[in-house]
Structures are given as structure tokens and as C-alpha cells.
Here is the input.
Amino acid sequence: MWQRRDQTQVTCIACGERVARSDAREYDKHGDRWSREDKAFEHLCKPCYRDLCHQPREGLEAMLGDIDTGALSRERFLAQYAELVENGDSPESTDS
Here is the structure.
């Protein structure tokens, strides 16, 4: 079989590295990469993809959306996230 490699370049959303599309993994923030209709995927390079936690993440996107990210530094964003989790507002508890 002939296999053509996709030469399109994509940017890893975790580290910012530009890699060939064929050397990346699709990331769907809704957790359903199989339903492809009308979707635009983000990408992760293979090393960043391997470093991901592949545990369920129900409620995570909503919790992250609750953090006002207007002009926050990375450090302040992470501090607010840690505070929400420490207060029991973890992704698992936000769906109940």
C-alpha cells in the first residue's frame, strides 16, 4: 500500500513546537475525537501527548472557563486553578 505523509505543519498546544501533522496527535477539548463533523482540532506533539494524563476529565473545561483569564500571568492562572481544586471544586465535583 502507498502511504502519503501529510507535510502540513501544526503547532503543539502544550509546548509550542511546530511539527509535521503526521508527527502530531489530535486533541479535542470535548473528549470526543471520533465525532469529527464540523470540528477543528488542536494538536499535540507526540512527546507532549505521551505526557498527558489520559484519565476522565468531565467538568474540567467548565472549571477552567470559570477562571477569569483576561490578563492573568501563567503563575496566577495556575494559582487560581490550584485554589479551585483545593477547595473541592475539582472537575469531578463540578458536574454534580
About this structure: Residues 92-96 have pLDDT under 50 and may be disordered. The radius of gyration is 16 Å. The first strand starts at residue 9 and ends at 11.
